[in-house]
Fold this sequence. Notes:
Layout: E1 8-13, E2 25-30, E3 33-34, H1 48-51, E4 65-71, H2 76-79, E5 81-89, E6 92-99, E7 111-114, H3 115-127, H4 134-148, H5 150-154, E8 159-164, E9 172-179, H6 183-187, E10 192-199, H7 205-218, E11 226-229, H8 232-238
Antiparallel strand pairs: 1-2, 2-3, 4-5, 5-6, 6-7, 8-9, 9-10, 10-11
Amino acid sequence: MTTEPQRLSLRVVVPPLGSRQGTVECRPVVDGRDVLADVFDEGPAGDPRYLLGPDAPLRATDTPREVRLAEAECTEGCCGAVYVTIKREGRRVIWSGWRNPDEDDLDLPEFRFDVEQYEAEVGRASTDHGWEWPARTVARLLEERLRGHADLLAAWECELGAVSAWHWEPDRINVFLFHPRRSAIREGRPWLQFRMTLPVSGDDPAGQADRLAARLTAEDPCEIAEVSGGSQEFARRLGYPWPGPRRRRA
């Protein structure tokens, strides 16, 4: 007997803007059931920024891939997380191998989806930005522009870390940069992280992203950003004060 495939929906949840409560979540719903609601209340589902997009981990391939769908607010190492293994087999996408490092047994069944419905839903959720507020849209577009022209930041010995917009600060974004590059961390060389907080208006998000990208690449962004990570010794060796006043030392 052929078993009917299940149906996946991906629901983005946004807390009230200005509130310190909650976080933006991408919640998987299978046949109308929020599959995380009954098995994990230690923290939120993953941010759509990480679960969706062009290289979304939710996209299914012939090679099985384990994806973290949710993590405890206090970190996985403290109170756990929810993982699932996603793979494509012919005309089906299978979710199985459910795992929570903090529990011996995670009570969720194997799900089987029709590949066309599954891929259409992941594609829809990845391109539907209607839930974003203006600052979140500016942050996404600015990050796309900066990653698309990484050489412009590299000219200043900088590498983009992330561009973030948080719902509790709905009228601003934060740009995080690494100097000289993120690879210095694993190579054991001196490194610093810089943070720049920028206001966002209700003007056209694409225009704002263009203007900010031009501003950030026209001159050394570390001259106007603040040190937010690394160490006092690394700052001394790289020629920056600690913690980050705005002027670089000669």
